[in-house]
Write a structure and sequence with these properties.
The protein has 15 helices and 12 strands. The chain is α+β, with helices and mostly antiparallel strands. The strands form 3 sheets. Strands 5-6-1-7-8 form a 5-stranded mixed sheet. It has a 4-stranded antiparallel sheet with strand order 9-12-10-11, covered by helices on one side. It has a 3-stranded mixed sheet with strand order 3-2-4.
């Protein structure tokens, strides 16, 4: 049996944790630059606040109903996510937990549990997570990952009836759950496949389950669709995955807080993003052999008023020697920005991507290179230690600028209660 533990309106729950007065008040959390709504409490959903909708389009509704608004606080969310996942690891064992996203994790359960034991165990687990972390979760249990996602969705949709826990361990219960689930709500069925299936009069997950494997192979993306159908039919195909601790690529991208037109501001932003990516690279003891930089210009609206995304203009460079030293990465990144920049254009986003990552102990150097200088590595270690302990980039490269007028907007940012000494929660 597989279970999936999913935090209820996770970002909103994190904000409510340190502000209990918001318990019954509708809450929304905004994306970078306070652009779109990326999280809603149940109360906000009931008001009709749209998911992924622009904030300015919902501003009147939000103000009318006194909805609490927050900018994304990723330091807080990341720390509370770790606490939830660590609670699950302590409860069932680290080898039985697969972290799927910041607010979801799959759990491998004992096949020998009977119905009563399964429900009692998952209910106890839900209560333990809430008690230890303050974050409410919903749990769906079923023979496969896809079915557990179906169970979890119904558990969250009917909290008053399910008490946020639903176990599908009999054919009758599985059928009832699949009949209540629209095909577009099945994990793994995207929007286009859902439309295709609906044109074939397949509108529920139960109807999809009745199809054969040849149908899935022909109409749902080949082997991937076949695996999806097997999982719907109760045959475990998707196993538990080990946590990815070493990344093959590392990216840092951000929207600018305001439209940028001058080259210097873009160079400062890219230098800052390169520093962030280099820190992540050193954290996994890696060195990058290639670096890519991209910028996205701001396009005027289409004639009919619709938003236009704008092209991604990019370039890459293969480094002479793989490195994790920040200034050795900033130099080529800034050079590429100078080549990509076009005077007279406005830019809204930039990013840096490090790839061809190898262990920093296995960097292949040229026969004619001088011996590696340990001073750069010691400098990086010192900067990382100081910045980690003191926070807020106490030490940074001048190339990243000092004013940083391009930084993203966060007009409704809450304190980082759990990761900053000067922002600890105060009582009294």
């Amino acid at each position: 049996m597989k279970a999936i533990v999913d935090c209820n309106s996770f970002y909103c729950s994190c904000e409510r944790l340190f502000q209990p007065k918001l318990a019954e008040r509708p809450v929304v959390v905004l994306s970078n630059n306070d652009g779109c709504i990326i999280a809603r409490s149940d109360e906000a959903k009931a008001l009709g606040v749209g998911m992924a909708a622009p904030y300015f389009q919902n501003k009147h509704l939000i103000e009318q109903h006194n909805v609490a608004v927050f900018s994304s606080n990723y330091n807080l969310y990341g720390d509370l996510s770790w606490r939830v996942m660590e609670t699950l690891r302590q409860a069932v064992g680290p080898d039985k937990v697969e972290v799927y996203s910041v607010d979801e994790a799959f759990i491998d359960l004992d096949d020998n549990m009977d119905t009563a034991t399964l429900h009692a165990f998952t209910m106890s687990l839900r209560q333990q997570v809430e008690l230890w972390t303050g974050i409410k979760v919903s749990i769906g249990v079923a023979p496969t990952k896809v079915l557990s996602k179906v169970a979890n969705r119904l558990a969250k949709k009917n909290k008053a009836i399910t008490n946020c826990v639903l176990v599908l361990n009999t054919e009758r219960r599985i059928q009832q759950a699949l009949e209540k689930t629209a095909v577009e709500d099945v994990w793994g069925v995207g929007h286009r496949y859902a439309q295709k299936l609906q044109r074939m009069n397949i509108t529920t997950a139960w109807q999809l389950r009745q199809q054969n494997l040849l149908f899935a192979r022909n109409h749902l993306g080949g082997v991937v669709g076949e695996r999806l159908l097997r999982e719907l039919q109760g045959q475990p195909v998707l196993g538990m995955k080990e946590e990815l601790t070493v990344k093959k690529m590392i990216a840092t991208t951000r929207m600018f807080g305001q439209t940028v037109t001058d080259l210097q501001s873009i160079k400062e932003a890219v230098a800052t993003y390169t520093s962030r990516a280099a820190e992540k690279l050193r954290r996994q003891h890696g060195a990058a052999g290639s670096i890519s930089v991209f910028v996205i210009p701001k396009e005027p609206p289409a004639p009919d008023g619709r938003f236009r995304h704008g092209p991604t203009i990019s370039n890459y460079m293969v480094l002479p020697v793989a490195t994790s030293v920040t200034h050795e990465l900033i130099k080529p990144a800034v050079q590429m920005v100078e080549a990509l920049y076009e005077s007279g254009r406005s830019y809204k986003k930039a990013g840096v991507l490090l790839s061809d990552i190898v262990p920093d102990t296995a960097v292949q150097r040229s026969l004619f290179d001088h011996a590696m200088d340990d001073r750069s590595r010691k400098l990086m270690d010192m900067m990382d230690n100081i910045n980690f302990s003191q926070r807020n980039d106490v030490l940074k490269y001048a190339a990243g600028g000092t004013t940083r007028n391009w930084k993203m907007q966060q007009n409704f940012h809450s304190p980082r209660y759990t990761t900053r000494w000067d922002e600890l929660f105060e009582i009294g």
